[in-house]
Amino acid sequence: MSDLRTLYPDSRYNITSSVTNPYNVIYVYDSAGINSIYPTSTGKCCLWTVPTGATWAKFEVWGGGGPGGGSCCCQQPQQPGGAGSYARKTIRVVPGQQYTVCAAAPTCCYSACQAPAGYPSYACGNNSNTGITYPLCLCASGGWGGFSQCFTVAAGCYHCLTCVCGTTCGADLSICGTTGASHNSSCGYDGWTYTPDAPYLGGGMRTSADFCAFANAAGISMSGYASFPGGGGAGANTTGGNCYCGGPGAPGLVVITYK
């Protein structure tokens, strides 16, 4: 019969373990998409082969953040980009098995008033090549896209936080992404957006991408970058002239912890 300590993959409950960290950790993400105003990166995928001696692995995936909506003429953000979802799965593994893992790309900036959703992250594999199957298909959706409208909320009013969950699949534990909220103004000078981080509901209050006083990229930069991993992008503000982009959503992340 197996010793209980060999079946429970957490050394905090093993009184004979060393004080040093016994785990091996792999991070998969597209660093080119972090803190980028106009990201052109396409995410990051790799094939992970279970190394000799490994008996279990924990996979964690964060979906990419949703972009903020753009603005034209007199539009302001009614909802900024939402946070990506989070999912986690721990499984037994056999050396030689392979898993495909993909971390979501960041979104582009969009000038359209309705931005699309962020990209998903996932980890999958059926591993029939080893003769012992420990299947995995774990995924976490991207964040909801933001949108803008023409002065539908008066200055000083708030767009309520809408707790709309994204989706996950194959998880032991998951936290769905949520949408953000915004405070509007007659111009962008005192507007701000709440852009949630993944996988938590927390995040920062940040100034809207203000195009009343700033031009295009300067406005996005002033609003702050989306929080990595999976943070939503701020929406754009303008009272006239050209159409401008909302802030891009941050890229996703995959973390593999094994022993």
Description of the molecule:
By secondary structure, the protein is mostly beta strands. The protein has one domain (24-258). Helix content is 4%, strand content 31%. The chain has helices at 4-7, 217-223, and strands at 24-28, 44-49, 56-62, 75-79, 86-92, 98-103, 121-125, 136-140, 147-150, 158-159, 168-169, 173-175, 181-183, 192-196, 203-207, 209-210, 236-237, 253-258. The strands form 5 sheets. A 5-stranded antiparallel beta sheet has the order 1-18-3-5-12, with no helix packed on it. Strands 2-6-7-8-11 form a 5-stranded antiparallel beta sheet, with no helix packed on it. It has a 4-stranded antiparallel beta sheet with strand order 10-13-14-15, with no helix packed on it. Strand 13 (181-183) and strand 14 (192-196) form a beta hairpin. It starts with a helix and ends with a strand.
Please describe the structure with a list of short key phrases separated by commas or semicolons.
5-stranded antiparallel sheet; mainly beta; 2 helices; single chain; 18 strands
